[in-house]
Amino acid sequence: MNNIRNFCIIAHIDHGKSTLADRLLEYTNTINKREMQAQVLDDMDLEKERGITIKSHAIKMDYEYTSDLAPKGKYVLNLIDTPGHVDFSYEVSRSIAACEGALLIVDAAQGIQAQTISNLYLALEHDLTIIPILNKIDLPSADPELVKDQIVDLLGCDRDEIMAASGKTGLGVHEMLAAIVERIPAPKGEEKAPLQALIFDSVFNPFRGIIAYFRIYNGELKKGEKIKFVNTGGVYNADEIGVLRLKPEPRDVVKTGDVGYIISGIKEAKEVKVGDTITTLANPCEQAIQGFEDVKPMVFAGIYPVDTEDFEELRYSMEKLQLNDASLTWEPESSAALGFGFRCGFLGMLHMEIIQERLEREFNMTVITTVPNVSYLAYKTNGEIVTVNNPSDLPDPGRIDYIEEPYIKASIITKSEFIGPVMTLCIEKRGQIMNQNYLTADRVELIFEMPLGEIVFDFYDRLKSISKGYASFDYHRTGMRQSDLVKLDVLLNSEPVDALSALIHKSNAHEFGKKMCEKLKELIPRQQFEIPIQAAIGAKIIARETIRAIRKDVTAKCYGGDISRKRKLLEKQKEGKKKMKQVGNVEIPQSAFMAVLKLND
Question: Could you give phi then psi for residue 472, rounded to 5 degrees?
Fold first, then answer.
């Protein structure tokens, strides 16, 4: 056990974690030259295309240590590569729970960014040993001395402890491997104690069922033993256990401190909970492993199948997807406009986009996603409190005393030349500046308090464009506050479309309604009859646009003769249009539901 080291890699997006992980695997000969490819741990097409890590990946490396600072010999290094985007911080928290140390990677050209700080705090909360690494040191734009100052300020470490490296050229990787052995402590635990293992991830295999990844804190797990999941109470056989190389490698026993996988023929998603504790049935542990929180979704949106018959298939796909992504939460709901579907909770807008794309690619499901929103609390006059995840859940306005909405504390790090535009954007989103401090001469951190509902739509994209990609953004919830919110309904042909309604602040309602009507006028195709598009608050219409009818020339066959003959034909057409308008059904294209996200384009 003294020769095991468990560590993860944390960093902001695009600071080179996956490339450095590739070098570590290459230098420890975990993968041979033939298997080597860029982002080798990212096994999803989406990850390779977008150049981001979405899932944490665990892999075991063997390393021969030859220096004098620690006992020489063979060491086992268990690496868990983590995502860098704020939307996937739940993945990071799970990886951190299974480790004793972390490599904190900072880009030598970009310096410390918002996600670096938030992931670092996560690691410090779990008492992890941090090894600071300055990556991309070979770039012409790198400024290592300045970035080292930032790291020293943030961590309070010595300048000598910061290691210089380059994932592209492999510079400093051998020193990094030695530092992992020397600085990160070996796992603690008792080999003779009852088995106690933490599940930190699970994946679904269509042939073998659910594969759970775990880290053993005490005791050992043997193949064929009867095991028990403490929280769910399920009892299973350990059909196959082993360690995680590039491909799973079966073993007869996995010991204390090790990271491994278990296959026990489980088919149901709800039977495996990430954060659960595995123990043996014969000699169970007294208590479960603590310190693992449930996921808190930030953004809610409805996902509906395009064909109502595909509802059951969509449910099956969502269950399988939830195994690979424990941060996705969902429950069934129905909508008058779209039929049956699911109300899903996501950690952010990128997370929502990725889920939608994975449903389409991995399960061939074409889905409609409704307007994303957050969850509010409505206090009724009779003292009852209602949680509103969907605008249609909002009680009758006459019975509401007041509504509370969630607030966040946002940290934005940007270059000082962009302070003006960034502040304008945040104030437009009802933000209040709390603090402003200069990290260096031209890098500033702005702390804002703002409603979560305002950053759901397009905040992140607009922030990136006004700061030319230089602003980094991170946030956490601070609580609920009373707010003057109204429900904005969209009526098409005088029928409310519940999938397009939104809860919005009173001050923005008029402008939002106007933009919404204009956008829908562009996107909804013209019909044989006139379609009014209206935005309404309660019974009051606040904006209107009209889609003109396509007019067929009924007088074409009428040449010459009296005007009354033409008028007769036109009157007949007018009657037909009236009738059509009463029974006519307006088809709403998929793009219209997503239009709300792009109202400012």
Answer: -115, 145
